[in-house]
Specification:
Layout: E1 7-11, H1 19-26, E2 34-39, H2 41-51, E3 56-59, E4 73-78, H3 95-110, E5 116-119, H4 124-129, H5 137-145, E6 151-156, E7 159-163, H6 173-176, H7 179-197, E8 203-207, H8 222-236, E9 240-245, H9 247-250, E10 261-264, H10 267-278, E11 283-287, E12 293-296, H11 313-332
Parallel strand pairs: 1-2, 1-5, 2-4, 3-4, 5-12, 7-10, 8-9, 8-10
Antiparallel strand pairs: 6-7, 6-11, 11-12
Helix pairs in contact: 1-2, 3-5, 7-8
């Protein structure tokens, strides 16, 4: 731990989106951690005035020991915006700034100065329009930290769903489901549940790729050729894994009893169920990194930017989970 209480870095995200007002909402309650916003304090102050919110904004110096976040105040690491922001209106000239927030916050976590990173939503399209190749937070943070296999985990209350593949076209998924990839993802998932969530012996349910988990090969061979051998190797190593089981019955409540996480084969196999249960309060976690990272489960919502109607539930959940994970990691000495 970098301090007696966790010190959490938060990136403001796309400045024309709802990120700034979600950040302002964090000041409405106390937090058992020091929250440091990477962004432009002038933008936050302007958005606060426009929304009629009374929020004190102080510059983060980093010299003093961490103190719990206070109601009505935000600490901000000042990174000035290149050009002024109009809520809801994207500007590619601000895209390098968005990337720099992530780089600096990630570097601070790697150096041990922050105990976790929480990211507000960015707009992938405008970053790429600015000539910066960008797939997403997960891939960028993996590159910055030298992590070869990041694993996306979504959390909604007690339901946790991890993914073997993430942002792939559906037609590319079957070829990506290999024994090595399934086994590696499951190992990272188990390690993350142990180190970051304090679950000593995680119980994992693994989904099949095909309808009815392949129906003994009649509806596809991936379960027989790739997934089952991976699970057999995991069991031989002492892991508690069940599957491959059909995705259409995996999320029945009775089948989730005693399950710590579900490992889905592709993005839209597991996440629609999780978001149906907890959208607006779900948290995106990246495992397989040397740092703790959580994020919201939604995008920039440009149509809501500046209206004051954006719901900060997911960001608050992401901050709360980051604090819990930082404490659990500290207690384990990991």
């Amino acid at each position: 731990m970098a301090a007696a209480i966790p010190r959490i870095a938060l990136t403001l995200g796309e400045p024309a989106g709802i990120g700034p007002e979600l950040i302002l909402d964090l000041a409405r309650q106390p937090w058992p951690a020091e929250l440091v916003i990477f962004g432009d304090p002038r933008l936050l102050a302007s958005r606060a005035r426009a929304l009629g919110r009374q929020v004190g904004i102080a510059e983060f110096s980093g010299a003093a020991p961490a103190t719990e976040a206070r109601v009505g105040r935000l600490l901000v690491a000042d990174l000035p915006l290149p050009v002024p922001v109009v809520p809801g209106r994207l500007d590619p000239r601000n895209a390098p700034w968005v990337m720099e927030l992530l780089r600096q916050a990630c570097r601070g976590c790697q150096q041990g100065y922050f105990d976790a990173l929480v990211t507000a939503p960015v707009h992938k399209g405008i970053i790429n329009d600015a000539g910066i190749p960008f797939t997403g937070h997960t891939e960028l943070l993996a590159e910055l930290t030298g992590s070869p296999t990041p694993v996306m985990l979504l959390v909604a209350d007690q339901l946790r769903v991890a993914l073997v593949t993430t942002h792939l076209p559906l037609r590319a998924v079957p070829a990506a489901i290999t024994r090595e990839r399934v086994e590696t993802t499951a190992r990272i998932l188990v390690d993350g549940l142990q180190r970051r969530f304090g679950i000593p012996t995680p119980h994992i349910v693994v989904l099949g790729l095909n309808p009815h988990a392949g129906e003994s090969g009649h509806l596809g061979m991936e379960e027989i050729r790739e997934i089952s051998p991976a699970l057999e190797a995991l069991r031989a190593s002492g892991f508690t894994v069940a599957g491959p089981i059909p995705a259409d019955t995996a999320f029945i409540e009775a089948n989730l009893q005693g399950v710590d996480a579900v490992l889905a084969m592709f993005h839209d196999q597991g996440l629609p169920v999780l978001k149906h249960r907890g959208f607006g309060n779900a948290v995106n976690v990246t495992l397989g990194l040397p740092i703790i990272r959580t994020s919201v489960d939604h995008g920039t919502a440009l149509d809501l930017a500046g209206t004051g109607r954006a719901d900060a539930g997911s960001l608050k959940a992401a901050v709360g989970l980051a604090i819990q994970m930082a404490v659990a990691t500290s207690l384990r000495g990991a």
